[in-house]
Structures are given as structure tokens and as C-alpha cells.
């Protein structure tokens, strides 16, 4: 942009100089002032009256200068001098006219260049304006793309939080392994210091004392849930697995029921180890399809809800026959009052230290949870309790020592939120969190023998340990 400005400045400066020259020099040349003119020849002084005078001056359409000159009166004495002066004046005027023509051409050329540059500058201004508009549009587009990316990433936040939690657990596991190694080293040294028979007797004595202590434990109140321990990954997203809480110590059979409907196959494993390895010991083909995942094995028999009904079935594993069946009066079924995850989980059968239970909802109780204690042989309802907790708002539930514990959700962030005691017919809101590691629980049942919660967590079979507040009986207790 600098050269055009310099040229324009030069043109304006030159025109100013010409104007100044014309105003000062031209009058002298044509005799408008009283200055004496001298030439190489000796001339007489010419007064203004006798000299040439400019009468008027103007400019033609092409920018040329036009002068009207009044000639002096002629006399013989001064004729030669005045002729010579006129000739000199004409020559100077011609020279000046040629210079003006040259300057006019230069001025016109520079003016055209300025016009061209003006057009280019206007074009550049329009381009800059277009670039500015495009930049705003592009920024808006990029902002929208970034926003969409952020919206895509938001669901990953719970996953990242889970990774952080898992990292902490791994650190804890490392520390526990390190501590366990130290303990094992101490045990190894202790074993070397004692005779084997003496050590064996000490172990038996300790075991007897522990059993005696366990017999004195009364039913406790749930205080804490820890874990989970992942036992196996198998099956669909929904299912159930369990052991018998009334089985003997040597009987560790596991039963496995995949999916929540359209199935009649129960798989049996002799132990947890066989279950993990997949070594089946037996398969049962039930006479009816089951509904939901809330079955229970109790004292050698399977209790389940018959598909599309509120009928409870008692099936014997030993005989392979149905021992009893009974309709649970007024109980909703087939996704009328399920848990929050659905899956025909209307009727939940469970067992604890006291006996066999059914948890469900009725229209008479406005869809809120009803707890019924069942006779394990006839399935007759012994007693019922009506709670004020909506069943469709519950994630899952389980019984411990005659108290029903309800979770607030089956998804991440689940916790035991509500409990109802059948002993006192009272309820309370609790806050007992647990780690829903795989984000979707479709079965959660307490086993009194193991004092653990069995869960089916999104195709993972897991165990949770529970901490109960116990009252130990003393010899003075009646």
C-alpha cells in the first residue's frame, strides 16, 4: 500500500509547486509587476502602461492554461525591444505549456493507478469482511463439533471413576498380599518350632471354641457390605445362582439358572471349584418354566415362581418331582410389580436364619412391598407384613434375621436404602453402600450359612461379605 500513497503525495506536491510558480513568475513574465527586465541587450525601461498585460486567464476542458494578453501601444522607438520581449515571453510560455502537458500526463496516469488501487482496496475490504464472517461460521461449527464430542464423552465419566476405584483396589490387594506374606512367614517359623501333633491339637481346640462362640451368636443387624468377589463370568445378563443354607458342611453343591424366562434347565455343580471350572454334575429339567431370577434352594428343594402366574412351586432335587404348589393370593405377576430392572421379578423368594419368605406387591397395598413368611412344606402363608415402600422403586431386596433390606437401585451407585423389621413391624431408612462393580444387578440373595450375599451382576456371578452387629449370649442370659 505504500507506493501508491507516495505517488499520490508526489502528484499533489508537484501541482502545488506549479500553482505557486504561476502566481509568482508568470506576472513578471507578462509585465504585471513593476520589476525592470534586463536582457543581454541594453533596453529602455518599460512601464506597466507600455508593457504586455494579462487581461484574464482560464483553463480549457483538457486542463490547459489560456491567457488573454493586452498588447501595448506601438511606437517606433520601443518596437524592437518589445518584439524581442514578446518573443522571449512566448518561448517561456511554450516551455511552461509543455511542462504542464507532461505533468498532466503523469497526473492522469497516477490518478488512474489510484483509482485501480481504490478498487483493489475495496475488494480486499470485502474479502476481509467475508473472511470474518467465514471465521465466525467456522468457529460456530467447530464449537458445535466440540460440544458433540463432549456429549459423547460424558457417559465415559462413570467408567473412568470405576477405573480409579479399581486402581485403588489393586493397590489394597498388593498391600494385603504383602501383609499376608509376612503372616505366612511367621506361621512357617511357628510350625517349625512345634511338634506337628501338638500344633494339630491346638487347631482343633481353636475350631471347637469358635464353633461354641458361633452358637452363642444371635441374629444381627446389617452394618456393612464388602466386596464383591467375582467367582465366575458366564450366562446372559440376567440369572441366578445359589447354594443351600441348610445343607451340611460337606455338601457344597451349587445351582445355576440362566435368564429370567423361557427356560426350565437347572444346572448343578458339586462345589464352587467345579462351578468355576464348568464341571457339571447333574442337569434338571423342570416341569414348568420359571419367571424372574428370585428363586431359592432351601433344605434340598427349589422354590420358584411359575411363569405367567402368581403360583409358587416347590421342586425336590432328590426325587425330581413337584412337592407342592400354591397361589400367592393377590400377588402381582408378569411385570405388574417388578423390581426396577423388570424381568418378571414380581415375586421374590428368599430364606434367612428364621425360615422361608416371599416378597411381592399387591393392589390392596397400593403396589407397596408385602412380606410373607411361608411354611416350607405346604407353602401356606403363616403371617404377612405390609410396608409403605413401592416395589417398582426397589432395585433388589434380601432377608437377614427377619429383617427385609431393600436397595434403591440395580445400577451404579446402589446402596441399601430401606429396612423393615418383621420382629417390631417398624421400618427405617439406611445408608449402606456397596460396590456394584458391573453396573447391573438382577439377583441379590442372602445365604445364612455362608453369611454372604449371592449376586448376579451383568453376567458375573459374585459374592458380597456382610458385617452384622451381633449380641453374644452369656451364661447369665435366660
TrEMBL record:
Domain of life: Eukaryota
UniProt-listed GO biological process terms: signal transduction
SUPFAM superfamilies in the record: YVTN repeat-like/Quinoprotein amine dehydrogenase
Protein name, as recorded: NOE3 protein
Domain (Olfactomedin-like) ranges: 218-470
Short name of one Pfam family: OLF
Subcellular localization: Secreted; Synapse
Coiled coil residues, start to end: 79-141, 170-216
Cross-referenced InterPro entries: Noelin_dom, Olfac-like_dom, Olfactomedin-like_domain, Quino_amine_DH_bsu
GO CC, one annotated term: extracellular space
Cystine residue pairs: 219-401
Primary subcellular site in the record, as a coarse category: secreted
Annotated source species: Anseranas semipalmata
PANTHER family xref list: NOELIN-3, OLFACTOMEDIN-RELATED
Keywords: Coiled coil, Disulfide bond, Glycoprotein, Secreted, Signal, Synapse
Amino acid at each position: 500500500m505504500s507506493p501508491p500513497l507516495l505517488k499520490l503525495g508526489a502528484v499533489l506536491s508537484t501541482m502545488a509547486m506549479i500553482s505557486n510558480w504561476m502566481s509568482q513568475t508568470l506576472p513578471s513574465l507578462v509585465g504585471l509587476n513593476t520589476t525592470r527586465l534586463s536582457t543581454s541587450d541594453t533596453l529602455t525601461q518599460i512601464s506597466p502602461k507600455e508593457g504586455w498585460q494579462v487581461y484574464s486567464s482560464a483553463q480549457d476542458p483538457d486542463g490547459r492554461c489560456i491567457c488573454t494578453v493586452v498588447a501595448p501601444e506601438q511606437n517606433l522607438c520601443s518596437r524592437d525591444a518589445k518584439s524581442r520581449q514578446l518573443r522571449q515571453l512566448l518561448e517561456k510560455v511554450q516551455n511552461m505549456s509543455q511542462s504542464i502537458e507532461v505533468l498532466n500526463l503523469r497526473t492522469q496516469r497516477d490518478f488512474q493507478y489510484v483509482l485501480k488501487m481504490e478498487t483493489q482496496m475495496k475488494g480486499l475490504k470485502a474479502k476481509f469482511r467475508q473472511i470474518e464472517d467465514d471465521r465466525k461460521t467456522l468457529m460456530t461449527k467447530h464449537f458445535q463439533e466440540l460440544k458433540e464430542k463432549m456429549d459423547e464423552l460424558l457417559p465415559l465419566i462413570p467408567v473412568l471413576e470405576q477405573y480409579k476405584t479399581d486402581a485403588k483396589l489393586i493397590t489394597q490387594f498388593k498391600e494385603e498380599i504383602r501383609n499376608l506374606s509376612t503372616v505366612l512367614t511367621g506361621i512357617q517359623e511357628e510350625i517349625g518350632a512345634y511338634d506337628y501333633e501338638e500344633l494339630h491339637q491346638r487347631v482343633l481346640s481353636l475350631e471347637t471354641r469358635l464353633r461354641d462362640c458361633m452358637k452363642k451368636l444371635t441374629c444381627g443387624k446389617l452394618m456393612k457390605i464388602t466386596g464383591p468377589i467375582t467367582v465366575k463370568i458366564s450366562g446372559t445378563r440376567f440369572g441366578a445362582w445359589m447354594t443351600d443354607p441348610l445343607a451340611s458342611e460337606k455338601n457344597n453343591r451349587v445351582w445355576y439358572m440362566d435368564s429370567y424366562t423361557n427356560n426350565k434347565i437347572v444346572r448343578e455343580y458339586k462345589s464352587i471349584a467345579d462351578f468355576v471350572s464348568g464341571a457339571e454334575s447333574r442337569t434338571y429339567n423342570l416341569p414348568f418354566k420359571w419367571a424372574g431370577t428370585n428363586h431359592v434352594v432351601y433344605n434340598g428343594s427349589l422354590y420358584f415362581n411359575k411363569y405367567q402366574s402368581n403360583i409358587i412351586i416347590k421342586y425336590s432335587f432328590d426325587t425330581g418331582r413337584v412337592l407342592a404348589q400354591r397361589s400367592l393370593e393377590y400377588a402381582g405377576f408378569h411385570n405388574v410389580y417388578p423390581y426396577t430392572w423388570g424381568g418378571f421379578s414380581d415375586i421374590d423368594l428368599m430364606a434367612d436364619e428364621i425360615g422361608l419368605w416371599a416378597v411381592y406387591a399387591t393392589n390392596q397395598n397400593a403396589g407397596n412391598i408385602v412380606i410373607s413368611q411361608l411354611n416350607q412344606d405346604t407353602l401356606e402363608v403363616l403371617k404377612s407384613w405390609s410396608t409403605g415402600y413401592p416395589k417398582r422403586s426397589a432395585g433388589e431386596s434380601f432377608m437377614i434375621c427377619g429383617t427385609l433390606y431393600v436397595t434403591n437401585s440395580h445400577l451404579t451407585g446402589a446402596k441399601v436404602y430401606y429396612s423393615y423389621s418383621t420382629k417390631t413391624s417398624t421400618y427405617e431408612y439406611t445408608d449402606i453402600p456397596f460396590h456394584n462393580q458391573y453396573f447391573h444387578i438382577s439377583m441379590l440373595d442372602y445365604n445364612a450359612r455362608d453369611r454372604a450375599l449371592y449376586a448376579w451382576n451383568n453376567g458375573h456371578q459374585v459374592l458380597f461379605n456382610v458385617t452384622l452387629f451381633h449380641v453374644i449370649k452369656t451364661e447369665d442370659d435366660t
